[in-house]
Specification:
The protein is of the alpha/beta class. It folds into two domains: 166 residues, TPP-binding domain (Rossmann fold), CATH 3.40.50.1220; 83 residues, 2-Layer Sandwich (SIR2/SIRT2 'Small Domain'). It has eight helices and nine strands. The chain has a six-stranded parallel beta sheet, with helices on both faces. A three-stranded antiparallel beta sheet has the order 5-4-6, with no helix packed on it. The radius of gyration is 19 Å and the shape is elongated. The two termini are 33 Å apart.
Length: 257
């Protein structure tokens, strides 16, 4: 594994533009379980509560599950080493963009700026009537479903429900990153969710090198991955950060001399 981490660091240090593509696995160490697989959320909750048609017809029933899942259980989650390492990479000019499938806001809380949320963000609510956006702390969830202060419309978490389209800004930024990047780092995603799972394939087709960090092999491992590092995202990214930042600092010293 150490050799693979070093190879990944060498590749990243030579890259002119690098993108990170993150999924649920990067947030598991923060206490947020994945939606699919062993221990996944859909093993406990019925996905229909996050279908847009069901939500519009049964907002109270959906909101009862939404509140329990996203605002009671996961509200205390904090960024882990993987999130912090990516933020530091961005600060040091080693990472240009993060495309995330996650809705937990942990990249931003860790300090990352160039974050494009493919599936939206659970920390915001949007009015289905006037489209006004509210930070979650501004709205009481004691009485469900919550309603808009401006027009009285139904409020919905500002993430993508089943049956909704991907936000255009995130979609455009993802496709642009796929065409621009010399290196794409896949972290914590199995590559099962459409259409997000196509981004690494698009990047590979454009000549991008693929670094993959996952606890198990994914749909990418045997097809497009150039460097596969097996392990938990926080531990691997911390080791990669040490390798990157130490080498970068040594290069800076050599340049000064």
């Amino acid at each position: 594994m150490e050799e693979q981490v070093k190879k990944a660091a060498d590749l990243l240090l030579k890259s002119r533009f690098t993108t990170a593509f993150t999924g649920a696995g990067i947030s598991v160490e923060s206490g947020i379980p994945p939606f699919r697989g062993n221990g996944g959320i859909w093993n406990k909750y019925d996905p229909r509560f996050l279908e847009i048609a069901y939500f519009m017809n049964h907002p109270k029933e959906s909101w009862n599950v939404i509140k329990e899942l996203f605002y009671d259980f996961f509200s205390s989650a904090k960024p882990n080493n993987a999130h912090f390492t990516l933020a530091e990479m961005e600060q040091k000019g080693l990472l240009g963009r993060i495309i995330t499938q996650n809705i937990d806001n942990l990249h931003q809380e860790a300090g990352s700026k160039e974050v494009y949320e493919f599936h939206g963000n659970s920390k915001r609510l949007v009015c289905m009537g006037c489209q006004r956006i509210y930070p979650v702390p501004e709205i009481s969830l004691d009485h469900l479903p919550p309603t808009c202060r401006q027009c009285g419309g139904l409020l919905k978490p500002d993430f993508v429900f089943f049956g909704e389209g991907i936000p255009q800004t995130a979609l455009s930024a993802s496709y642009e990153a796929a065409s621009l990047s010399d290196v794409l780092i896949i972290i914590g995603t199995t590559g099962e969710v459409m259409p997000a799972n196509q981004i690494p394939f698009m990047a590979k087709s454009a000549g991008c090198k693929i670094i993959e960090i996952n606890v198990d092999q994914s749909n990418y491992t045997g097809s497009i991955t150039d460097i596969f590092i097996k392990g938990e995202a926080g531990r691997i990214m911390e080791q990669l950060g040490v390798q990157l930042f130490t080498t970068s600092l040594d290069n800076d010293k050599d340049g000064v001399n």
